[in-house]
Each structure stands twice: as C-alpha cells, then as structure tokens.
Specification:
328 residues, alpha/beta, two-stranded parallel ribbon, 17% strand
C-alpha cells in the first residue's frame, strides 16, 4: 500500500518546516505527492524544507491563508502546525487556544471554501488520555485531557466531526505518542530526547523531571519520526478512511532515566567525545532530579493494534536503534 504512487495529488502540509512535518513532507514527495508547505518558522527551519515543495511563510491564523488555498487548490490538508509544549500551554492557555483552536478553524474554513477532500489531523495520544486506567491505552478510552494543550487537541477532533457532518469532509486523526528523531529541537512534549543528546554532545549535565514516588521519571511511549511519517502516508493513501482515529506509537513504555541511560551509552559507544570523563562530572552519568513540571502525566503509553489492523502500520525501529540513528 505504502509504495503506491498518487501522481497529481496535491497536499498542503502546515508546519512542514518543523521537526515532524518536514519528515512527513519528505515522505509525501517520495510517494509522488505535489506538496505545499505553510509554516511561520516560529519553531521550523528553512533548512528542513524539501526543495521540491513550494513554501509559504505564513501563520495559520492569518487571513492570507485563503489566498494560498486559492492559488494552490490542494486535495488534502495535513495539519502539523501547532503550539506543541504542554508546560507552555499551562503557562499561557490563551495563546495555546489561539493557535491550536482559532488557527485550526481558520485552516478548516479555508479547506471547506476550496473543496479539500480530506484532512489528516495530528492529535496527541501522549496527552489526550490523561492519567488513563487502561494501559497501554486504546482509541476507545474516553479522553481525559489534563493540560490546555491536550484540551485544544480534543476540541479540534470534535470540530472535525462537525466539518465531516456538515460539509462531508473526510478526515483521519493520528494521535501521536512521543516522537523523536533527526531535526528535533529541544522543545515540546518529546523534546527530552533532543535535550539529552545536545547536553551530552556539549558535555553538559541533564536533569530528570520526576514525581516523588518514582525517581526514575515518567513513563512515555517513544516513536521514531520515520515511522510516524510512514503512518501519515498510509492514512492518506487509504481511501476507505472516512472519519477515523488512530494511535501511532510503539506500545512500549520507557521511564525518563532509562531513556537517558540508552542515550548515554549510545553516545559513549559512538566515541563522539573522548574527553567526556564521568569521574570528573558524575552528573553526566547520573543526572540529578527535578520535580515534575505542571501538566506532566505520570505515565503515557499507546495501544496501536488498530493502526496495525486497519492501516497495516507497525513501528519498525526499536528505541535503541532510533536513538543511534538520531545521535548519528
């Protein structure tokens, strides 16, 4: 399915200069799509933009977005642009809602006016279920968002149901686990991988955020960005997906301290910096603890059986393999 070519299909990717969005753009172009990127470069980078894509530097809240739709007339929208930080959403919920709800509605109104056939919406399996009782958590679990970021993602999912009912627009929601990989910046819910790697490369100690009852940190489901991009292609190529929701993760929970240990040992094995001496700075090997941040869930892990059964998707890289690729 994923090798099928769709020549002539045009897709508009918001956030296509960002960490995940740029990998999705690359996968779309490799699959034969004609790609348009909209990104305000608040966290995206121009060097991430595939030269085969047409780029518009624009905020999704801008009135000028309609002109882009009129000019490009996309068949699909893939919506990755967002305020992505849970702690930032706690500090400033109004800004979070402005980007993740008002910006989303501006995008959807443009999509309706210009006849977009389908929207791929990126939600957050890592945040939307809250402190779930079922673990790993399936799509059927009632969302219990505990941060403004998670609330706005759930609101957008409800709006998608409205646009499908009112205007017949098809959609697929992909609820991501914590995504990591090349091009990641040390910001957002899964930015800890980039933070740990950058600190080790610079010889700086890291800290591990943890609740008092679990000093090894929170549990998270970490999924490599290449696997995430492949899930997007499968969702777009599946014509029978009219209005559906999928978890995209690994189903494997990893504590923050265990993640750090993997990165530390991968860094040491790569011999990147032979000057690193843990005897002189033991914090490099055994990071100190900080209290959990506001909005941090104690654990999050996704059941991905539905994506396997319907999309034919499975994660292909183990966390150790993905860390080695990211470090390289």
């Amino acid at each position: 399915m994923e090798n099928q070519k769709f020549s002539g299909k045009r897709i508009l990717v918001t956030g296509g200069a960002g960490f995940i969005g740029s990998h999705v753009v690359d996968a779309c172009i490799a699959s034969g799509y004609d790609v348009v990127v909209v990104d305000n470069l608040s966290s995206g980078r121009t060097e991430n933009i595939n030269p085969a894509a047409r780029f518009y530097q624009l905020d999704i809240r801008s009135d000028d977005l309609d002109a882009v739709f009129r000019q490009e007339n996309p068949d699909f929208v893939n919506h990755h642009a967002a305020q992505i930080s849970v702690p930032d959403s706690v500090r400033d919920p109004k800004f979070d809602a402005d980007v993740n709800v008002i910006g989303f509605l501006n995008l959807m109104e443009c999509a309706v006016r210009h006849g977009v056939k389908k929207t791929i919406f990126i939600s957050s399996g890592g945040a939307i279920y809250g402190e779930a009782d079922t673990y790993p958590t399936p799509e059927t679990y009632p969302p219990q968002p505990l941060s403004p970021y998670a609330i706005t993602k759930l609101i957008a999912e409800h709006y998608l149901q409205f646009y499908h009912h009112q205007y017949g627009m098809d959609y697929t929601v992909l609820r991501y686990a914590n995504v990591y990989g090349p091009r990641q910046i040390p910001k957002g819910e899964a930015g800890v991988v980039a933070i740990f790697i950058e600190n080790l490369l610079a010889g700086r100690p890291s800290v591990i955020n943890a609740y008092p009852d679990e000093p090894r940190g929170m549990e998270r489901d970490y999924c490599f960005v290449g696997d995430i991009a492949r899930a997007n292609i499968l969702a777009m190529n599946s014509s029978n997906l009219v209005a559906d929701v999928f978890n995209i993760g690994t189903g494997i929970a990893t504590r923050t301290a265990d993640l750090y240990d993997m990165i530390y040992h991968a860094h040491a094995a790569a011999g990147i910096d032979k000057r690193m001496n843990t005897d002189h700075d033991p914090a490099l090997k055994h990071p100190p603890r900080n209290p959990a941040r506001k909005g941090d869930l104690s654990r999050s892990c996704l059941d991905v059986a539905k994506a396997h059964a319907i999309l034919g998707w499975n994660p292909s890289l183990s966390l150790n393999e993905g860390i080695r690729k990211t470090l390289a």
